[in-house]
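Appendix B, record 7
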Amino acid sequence: MTDLSLRPATQADSAWIRDLIHRVGINPLDLNWEHFLLAESPQGIRLGCAQLKPHGDGSLELASLAVEEFARGRGVARALIESLLAGSPRPLFLMCRPELGPLYERFGFRTVGPQEMTPYFRRIRKVTRLLGFLGRFTGPRIMRLD
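Structure tokens (predicted):
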């Protein structure tokens, strides 16, 4: 989609970000608008968002990538990812549903095991494995870009 612009989120975008994240069904935790980048149409219609989320252990995560249903398949996610990757330090982590791994592999991310994870992601892995054992959740794929 060539007719979109990217901009840092403002506090006025906070409610929309939360609503979109809930509607697409991804992790609703740590949605600090100050970490988000938004994609908009020329008319100012919000199309999608993503963030670089810092964690207490010093790791950084590409997170909360969400695109409005009407704007999917038009390059919105790609534009957000490319822009955030351009200015981010490495390593950069992400968590995604297992079936989305190939999407992120196109940007150079690779699936990692616990030995390459920071403490935050090792904790997430333990929790999701426990939930998977209980039959509630299969767990995310944890990926890293160096």
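Remarks on this record: The longest strand covers residues 46-54. The helical segments are 14-24, 76-86, 101-105, 119-133.
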